[in-house]
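Appendix B.2, paired examples.
Example (i):
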Amino acid sequence: MCDQDHFEQDREEFEKLGWVTRRQFGVMLGAGMAMMLPEVANAVTVTESDVTVKTPDGTADCYFVHPASGTAPGVLVWPDIFGLRPAFRQMAKRLAETGYSVLVVNPFYRVKKAPTAEKGAATPIPSLLPLAQALNETTHMTDAKAFVAWLDQQQSVAKNRKVGTQGYCMGGPMAFRTAAAVPDRVGAVASFHGGGLVTNMPNSPHLQASKTKAQLLIAIAANDDMRSPDEKNVLKDTFAKSNQPAEIEVYTGAAHGWCPPDSGVYNEPQAEKAWARLLALYGKALS
């Protein structure tokens, strides 16, 4: 997804379904400002920093946040096409406050340091497409190996517990391929409004993830399901055949991009539902 060609189609769908008015859609998209996420109950104190990670192709600028004491399972976060920005720092910090060591990466580090989207989530998508189109299966896999290896070098990351990974929009396939790249370390994969999870190619991300032992959470936007109604069934059948626990659900009333709090279609009730399901997944798979 994340395709400017769908802009008007999205707006018309949202209006038709009563999710948003024309004026609201324009105002929200133009604002590009992150809302404050709900506070974490019994949040642990965390330490945060900007870090760099060496990869086969250079040095990636990232954000790392983790509990201030002890060790915690590592989590690798792949952002959407708008990249590493305040909204994803906020999301990562919240996750760390629940007891995880979280690395959010700049997937476009080969070309540009973050911020890579000048106006955050309000940046015109056509200007970002060249960045996204420069990435592929090879970069996904080599980056995943480097980022997980970096996590395993950190004192705050528990080496005796599996790693989790989550991706948003274009980050969904990257999360799937992370499990395929490091199958012995990744225990949980979450995709939120992921685009390109299922293709007709033998290297489709869903097929690669099905060859691992990772547990999965796949949260699908309602309008994405409208465009590709059979995709959820392909995912369900694939992971049933591989005997992998997979929670696959279409989020009613949630539009593509509903999770990041700076998104023009941020849907707090459904984002909080996705958050709760993510914590449930990590609680089972990374314990």
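Example (ii):
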Amino acid sequence: MMRMLLALLLVAGVARAEGEAAGEFDYYVLSLSWTPSWCAIEGDARESEQCDPGQGYGFTLHGLWPQYERGWPSYCPTSERAPSRAMTADMIDIMGSSGLAWHQWRKHGVCSGLSAADYYALSREAYERVTRPDLLRQLDREVRLPAAVIEEAFLEANPALAPDMLTVTCRDRRIQEVRVCLTRDLEPRLCGDNVVRDCTLADAVFSPMR
């Protein structure tokens, strides 16, 4: 009995290591990254062109992530071809870099069940469906504010969204991302329990665009 149990555990471990089945998920999380925060935390140290003065990046597309009701798939086996350099370069205007576009395909896009071209097209459509508040782009100085203010701004700009359909995350005491939950048809929907974990900071740093 013990040998059988060990054999089953080994088989399960191998199956898990190979990744989940592509196309089998419940909904999407659209992750929008506030570029000034990313630059302060990581980008400046990397000397990323995305952080150069005058680039004008605000909320960029971090990714469109297939999601389970609890948890998420990643690095799924796929027979789809990897994106070309031209495909990833075409995403720079909303993602900031072709490297990020490549990484998002490799980790999340392969789990969508779509081709690379279709995944990027769907990601762009999802990004364009969510209105990023103009007021946040007009900020001309660094401020400290409750993270809830960012959520309220998105709710006001997107009347179809309800509070439990998005979440605001923080990192290093900065506003990091806004994550919006969408159906597979890109309609707003309630987020799963593991996604709805709002940043509770009352004095989160929010830096202006460069």
